[in-house]
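Lab meeting, action items carried over

1. Structure of the two-component assembly. Owner: GW. Status: complete.
Input record:
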Amino acid sequence: MGEFKVHRVRFFNYVPSGIRCVAYNNQSNRLAVSRTDGTVEIYNLSANYFQEKFFPGHESRATEALCWAKGQRLFSAGLNGEIIEYDLQALNIKYSMDAFGGPIWSMAASPTGSQLLVGCEDGSVKLFQIIPDKIQFERNFDRQKSRVLSLSWHPSGTHIAAGSIDYISVFDVKSGSTIHKMLVDRQYMGVSKRKCIIWGVAFLSDGTVVSVDSAGKVQFWDSATGTLMKSHLIANADVQSIAVSDQEDSIVVGTAEGTVFHFQLVSVTSNSSEKQWVRTKPFQHHTHDVRTVAHSPTALISGGTDTHLVIRPLMEKVEVKNYDAALRKITFPHRRLISCSKKKQLLLFQFSHHLDLWRLGSTVATGKHGDTLPLSKDADHLLHLKTKGPENIICSCISPCGSWIAYSTASRFFLCRLHYENDNISLQRISKMPAFLRSAVQILFSEDSTKLFVASNQGSLHVIRLLEGSFKHLHTFQAQSGTVESMCLLAVSPDGSWLAASGTSAGVHVYSLKRLKLHCTVPAYNFPVTAMAIAPNTNNLVIAHSDQQVFEYSIPDKQYTEWSRTVQKQGFHHLWLQRDTPITHISFHPKRPMHILLHDAYMFCIIDKSLPLPNDKTLLYNPLPPTNESDVIRRRTAHAFKISKIYKPLLFMDLLDERTLVAVERPLDDIIAQLPPPIKKKKFGT
Amino acid sequence: MVEEESVRVVRCGGSELNFRRAVFSADSKYIFCVSGDFVKVYSTATEECVHILQGHRNLVTGIQLNPNNHLQLYSCSFDGTIKLWDYIDGILIKTFIVGHKLHAFFAHAHAEDSVFVIIKKEKPDAFQLVSVKLPKSTSQEIEAEELSLVLDYINQSPKCIAFGNEGEYVAAVRDFYLSVYFFKKKKTSRFTLSSSRNRKHAKNNFTCVACHPKEDCIATGHEDGKIRLWRNFDDDKKYTYTCLHWHHDMVMDLAFSVTGTSLLSGGRESVLVEWRDAAEKNKEFLPRLGATIEHISVSPAGDLFCTSHSDNKIIVIHRNLEASAVIQGLVKDSSILTGLMIDPRTKALVLNGKPGHLQFYSLQSDKQLYNLDIVQQEYINDYGLIQIELTKAAFGCHGNWLATVEQRQEKKTELELQMKLWTYSKKTQGFILNTKVNMPHEDHITALCFCNAENSENPTLVTASRDGHFKVWILTDDSDIYKKAVGWTCDFVGSYHKYQATNCCFSEDGSLLAVSFEEIVTIWDSETWELKCTFCQRAGNIRHLCFGRLTCSKYLLGATENGILCCWNLLSCALEWSAKLNIRVMEPDPNSENVAAVSKSSVGSDLFVFKPSEPRPLYIQKNICREEVQWGVFVPRDVPESFTSEAYQWLNRSQFYFLTKSQSLLTFSTKSPEEKLTPTSKQLLAEESLPTTPFYFILGKHRQQQDEKSNETLENELVQLPLTENIPAISELLHTPAHVLPSASFLCSMFVSSLLLSKETKSAEEIPDDIDMEEEKESHSSGEENDFTEKVEDINNADLGEDIVQQLSKSEEKELRKFRKIDYSWITAL
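Predicted assembly:
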């Protein structure tokens, strides 16, 4: 594996935003997640829970509701009173439309997916018709006294239940009038609370309405008579979210204490058809409020203020024990937020509204393996670059020479030139960006920092030559005919002759920068690409997919390399395939052409192509062999995968020079420390 | 009768009431609990023992109401029999002989004439639940040999088996799994909890199980204090469970209420928890129950619960979680450090009770009289905590003073020691703390004794300690301007060559004090506290020391650790005799010269009774029990017995009780088994102990007054017609069920003659006889015999012939009793 000096960076104080809504789409098996900063992420549950797409957030767009409608259309609504539809191909907002009812608190698509219902601050429930490329206001339902916080359709589409403050109302969709008003008890264990907020309702096909409220109750109502059937007090704090499975035999609710409760429909006795809802298992995977839950056919999905997305599979529903049967906790985005200037030893950290530039510290000391070396010069915070406007940064990059920074928001592209004078640094914004450079999905500088590659959200790739203080547009690779899919990942060969670009679903395209045309397309693969890089000298393209497969493709030969074929023939180690975070970065050692360096959030790995591949019987995660061990044993146990799990959660790792690595970690405890304090719970024995 | 006597060791009360779940009768009037070889029937309203169902020859291990006739009770025992009782009359109806050692018993209405028992397989630690077909037969003893296996490899405790949903399935738990056997499908489902060694799941094992009476729901208790409610368990894949967690320690027992709306659980916290609607947030508590809850049961009527506790107590609790009655047996929870003592006032046995308490236990009524809180600190029920222990106690001055010593030692060097002196208050009829002495000695107190001389004007107490000193404490005037008071102060500190003081003892007249310092016995004058003389035998440290009494008061006895018993003559200051005897317990009889010594041998313990004046023992009984005897005490008899046989004369004045290592209280009894019949007095008690109804208050009182009035008038008239209630024959006649009575013509003459007035008033001889008899009866009821044998009818018949002539009422009683005996065969013959 070789010995490296490692810069262990822990000053990237990135805190993901809390999760506000999740929406599960059964047909495409995708999960839409919206965060409190307005970001919407799309996870592909079939592709090993990979975060396929994301829509950058916006300060004024606090999402309160998210839902899928017919034809894989995604809508969100928020406190700015607008309903937004997202374009899942171009990764931008298709349109937004004001509902004219004040802030929107809830939204629900009809069971057929052709109608959209929103509940507003002023107590109105508005019905919209979903027509191709638009939504159209249809009518208002009976106005309620206070804001409508939750909505649910009856599966037949004839009735809806709306949760408000202190009561639940049931509407007839045809007439739009209230049939029942079900008052919720404000009492909580004898103590009268001010108000009982109905955070969520669910309408079941047998006419039962299930409500969750701020008094900690889950209540089952009969909508035909408007009476309470059963009440479960499950928490001392609010119950904030509810989701029902498609079979209506299981309900999941999330509480402000961080607990997720599972309710199941269980027959009373084995020989009677009578069934009852029973609270079964509690799951405590969150520390903070569970703001939202979803129920996929095999799993309970929950998210909340503590920024984790938790996918808890239901063991009785899982057929085979593969990695779907394991609990998933997704905390970090599956894309790079850090770029690195190797020459100047700079790190650029991307936050939602600003960029931070740091110079790494240095040391003159030397030490043994495992020693912590004292710093002779501390790391330096060089620059804090704030964006203007409410939009979040989509992507950013620093050039390898360290003199250019490029970043983009949803509507503007920024390019800056950095000047270094001793310890001082000055920033010069390059103004007058061309009209076509409005928004970028991915930015990359060439190795010699003379070219800038920008993937725009129309599917085109721009090549720009950078000059001293100015730039020149060289070429635009247009998207393949008929597709508008954006390219999310870019890779350039170190000699500057090849550019590889990958979209969310289509294969990887390789362009020749010398001839400025498409060179070849790597054969399509079922799973999305999570990282790719082009090796120096050989110009082999190494591609990592979300199912943990790694391919090596020779660009000059336009075919997979011999090593890649051997790997595919033998298959990866089962533990390698069971890892649950995608590979987010690939790099190469300049002096050792046989080595591929890659990492995910929990391990750093060097693949040595010269060594034999491990089979399922060998130990994958072998600890570093002690130095006094004989060479024979070491050779026998050695295999191609050298894995280190010292640094976690690992957000970025790259080679600065031949003997130096930089690793950026973000300990989870540091994130939790920056979150608001959770609801205090009495713990026994303290 | 006297000729037939033979002294046997019998178990005398104090057996575990909490061994199994108590059972309520269908109307909740009675509560049944196993008690050694017997089943006791208590009234839930008055806490009185109504009946003792005796008949098993070994430990009773399970009781349950007959599901087809709620006036009958099944019991099973280690002796391999299942017995069916009529508990209202206390009659054994049938015996089914199974043959195996039966560990638990279950019956439910839906398994026709089959019951379920737990038996042990050949392999150790492997128990089976089998169903036993009870054959229908008229005979009294029936062999039931048709066994069929239901579940294998189960836990022996009946808490780990539960029948659910009208007997459709049975759930059993053991270690880390729950198995459910469905009778209809003949299928077993098994659910295993993770048992990995890691911290989270290490205490996942099951401790108890209960089934919901209405729904398919099984509740299981776990060692980590969780309760799991299992549902859908007929599906191996879709099964699911809910957790309820309040207990921080092991869940000891679970019970559903009759309707199934609430679940009761209890454990070491001594708190009964009621979970309503199986919801974690909706629970009620009944705290401060005193000791670990071991069993919970629910009355079939649903109005009462009861909890059995580790301190041998049963608490009857109302549906609204209010304790309504406490049935307290002899507490055997803690180790007995104080030994056995007799409270001179109440004649109750006094020993360690609950932690930090002294219990006063009535041997006559097998009931705890009261508890004296010595430590007076909240007892924290946690494993591994070092508690304050009550180590020594002694009564002095005819029960006017009580001295106690408590200690707590966390580390070797940190000893907390406290001596308390309690005075008896006539006003409150209890002991009141008078003096508290912190650290009376530097080290453990090894002995404590009062000077119990008749004529001593000043109460004196001596404590001996390992710190090498003995201290004399006397009562002095502690009055100040505010109040008149007395208190104890140290009067004299004695030591002998820095040896540890191990024992101390006052002579009978209080003139001499003997203190043993390891191997040496020193004699001190109690007037001047001068060392008079020393004895040393060099035969090991002195373990026991006592003065002889009455005619033998010139002798001093000492038993050493090396197994030598020495007797010194105090007049000659020389060794009188010595014997090789490894003595564990040495107790002088306060009413005679006799000294009882229990020695340990390889097979058990042997008893020797001797007089200090002669080395030849009066009485030897080898092998009184298999275990080591820890403590013994002589209890003076209220009425002396008159054993003519030389060997038993030592039992005339006092009775000897002893406590073995496994804490069973044993005594010697000469009562022949036929005398141990359920006394009629007790049966009448059943009637009397029933609760008084409002009806009674209206009519009964009124009637009583009338009775009194009529009594007065009768007395005035000087014609004393016996009231029908007072004639035993009549009450016997009235209380015997009609179907067991012989024909009226047979009874008539007797009945009429009993109504006749005898010519003379009660003869002088008769009175003591009656008392005697009553006394006997009382002691039978309390003295539960270990090896009760079936009654021999011949003897009874022989007795009867003589008695009829002499004492009419008494003989009639016997006659009737005999009819009762006869009636069994008489019925079955029909």
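2. GW to write a short summary for the group page. Key points so far: Chain A touches chain B at residues 189, 216, 232-236, 264, 266-270, 278-282, 316, 684-685 (CB under 8 Å). The longest helix of chain A spans residues 562-570.
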